[in-house]
Design goal:
Blueprint: H1 12-19, E1 26-34, E2 40-48, E3 54-64, E4 69-76, E5 81-88, E6 95-104, E7 109-119, E8 123-130, E9 137-146, E10 149-158, E11 163-166
Antiparallel strand pairs: 1-2, 2-3, 3-4, 4-5, 5-6, 6-7, 7-8, 8-9, 9-10, 10-11
Organism: Coptotermes formosanus
Subcellular location: Mitochondrion outer membrane
Protein name: Eukaryotic porin family protein
């Protein structure tokens, strides 16, 4: 039996009806390949015909299956370098721990986020900590499933303001 979807994925199929595959005025190309050693390469690009904006990206992903580790790095034409390190199903079945970071050399902007996901037959729980300079922001969500019914809740705590900012 599969665990319920995460809170962010609730209603995703309905949203995708209107947002996937209907990109008028947008040219898009995505390419993926995998080496014999298991390194995955993805590159993509898009061109908005209305604004003339062009965007491209290159992503590499390497998995160490014995330890459940995945290393990912993405560079895009907005000069942002994003990295993700994750471990899944190694510490406990259904548990995924990740660290995401990004760096924009032109602006010096940096972001970091620690993410955790736990899935079971009847629930899915997520907890993320945004590591920004103003103070960490804690985001938590849970989805419970029973006989095809799903119920979820999401909340966010801003440590700088010392209050719950999202319900």
């Amino acid at each position: 039996m599969m665990s319920p979807p995460s809170y962010n994925d609730l209603g995703k199929n309905a949203r995708d009806i209107f947002s996937k595959g209907y990109h008028f005025g947008l040219l898009k190309l995505d390419c993926k390949t995998k080496t014999k050693s298991g390194v995955e390469f993805s590159s993509g690009g898009s061109s908005n015909q209305d604004t003339g904006k062009v965007f491209g990206s290159l992503e590499t992903k390497y998995r160490i299956s014995d330890y459940g580790l995945t290393f990912s790095e993405k560079w895009n034409t907005d000069t942002t370098l994003a990295t993700e390190i994750s471990i899944q199903d190694y510490i406990a079945k259904g548990l995924k721990l990740s660290f995401d970071s990004s760096f924009a050399p032109q602006t010096g902007s940096k972001t970091g986020r620690i993410k955790s996901e736990l899935g079971h037959d009847v629930f899915a729980v997520n907890c993320d900590v945004d590591l920004n300079t103003a103070g960490p922001v804690l985001l938590g969500s849970a989805v419970f499933g029973y006989n095809g019914w799903l119920a979820g809740y999401q909340s966010q705590f801003d440590s700088q303001k010392s209050k719950i900012t999202k319900k």
